[in-house]
Amino acid sequence: MLAVLAKLLDHSAIHFARFEMWRLTKGSLPVPVGPIKKEDLFAEVAIKTPEVSFTTKTAFHFPSLMTTSCEENDTVHGRLYRCGEDWRQRPVVILMHGWNYELGYHFQFPYLARSLCKLGVNTAMLELPYHCHRRPLGHGVVRDFISNDLECVLEAIQQSIADIRAVVRWLSDEGCPNVGLWGISLGAWLSGLVACADDKINFVAMLTPVAKIDRAIEELAFCEPIRQGMQNRKISLARLNLVDHHPRSRPERILIVESIHDRFAPVETVEELWNAWGRPEIMRVNHGHISVLISLPVMKRIVNWIAAKAACARDQHACARFAF
Q1: Which of 126, 164, 241, 285 satisfies CB 3.0 to 4.6 Å to 78 for a cystine?
Q2: What was the pLDDT predicted at 233?
């Protein structure tokens, strides 16, 4: 893709998001709270197998392991696309969408799920906090994953990690031999955090991960509400950076997809992550943060990578077949 077009798409998306955040938070002041309680995003929540209920063949839900002030947000919704009757004997990958990328969840993810199922990989989709069914219906201060309520933003991050790990535990207990993650943007960052916290993750693909959250909050226009929430407060966000964590998966089971014209996740931050994580597999593509989402060749390459790694984790002979 032409660099100028990729950058234009990113620029437009950033400023549209800025307008939406202004619309949602206009007239409200940064929420005054005491010291941040969520110092350790991986503590406080006891991870256990959730009680999953299905409403259709694919749609499921369960109570979040964390409760918040928004009732709608405390029920986790998702979908599971199974590979036939013997799906429990097959690997599974969990897809995590980007911030406010509901279109991708509803339209792109089912397409990717069907492609993965054809290659023998079960596919689960997960709605992140304050998205889709979990978005509050009222007109309070908090109506989004990102807002000027910093305590709630950190709570949403911790809840995301707990929900993802709960689904991993459920799928593992169902008998799926290998569980992996594929995240996009915000979902990629969360996938990386989970891969650093949970040894049940066998492989992880991160498409345009926001590797340095402190820099994103400092520079991106739509993060102004968070900057307002941090006023006059000495808060270190370094613990949110992927480069300050270490994955439990081996480098050969990690894929980083870097868009070289990305204005959300700059190349230098992704390269820093690549080096910090022991130089795992990396796919450098001629796209921006937005344009890569509509690239069928890139999506196909990631689907094939996941199918190969899922087979490798399950069967070393299958790994050899993919290698040649």
Answers
A1: 126
A2: 66
pLDDT digits (tens, 9 = 90+) for 104-125: 999 999 999 999 999 999 999 9
Report how far residue 157's alpha carbon sits from residue 186's, in angstroms, rounded to the nearest whole number: 10
How much is the pTM? Answer: 0.90
pLDDT bucket at 305, cuts 50 / 70 / 90: very high
Quick one: three-class SS letters along 189-254?
Answer: HHHHHHHHHCCCEEEEEEECCCCCHHHHHHHCHHHHHHHHHCCCCCCCCHHHCHHHCCCCCCHHHE
Residue 103, classified by CB atoms within 10 Å of its CB into exposed (0-12), middle (13-18) or buried (19+), is exposed
Tell the residue number behind the tokens 């409403």, with chain if given. 55
Q: For residues 301, 102, 2 and 287, what is the CA-based torsion angle, rounded to 10 degrees? A: -40
Q: Which amino acid is at 210?
A: V
Place of tokens 């002030």: 69
| Residue 75 pLDDT exceeds 80 | yes
Question: What CA–CA distance (Å, rounded) separates 182 from 186?
Answer: 11
Q: What span, in angstroms and rounded, lies between the C-alpha atoms of 60 and 125?
A: 10
pLDDT at 78 over 90: yes
- Torsions phi, psi for 256 (to 5 deg): -115, 125
Strand order in the sheet with 201-207: 53-54, 59-63, 75-81, 122-126, 92-96, 179-184, 201-207, 254-259, 281-285
By CB neighbour count within 10 A (0-12 exposed, 13-18 middle, 19+ buried), where does 43 fall? exposed
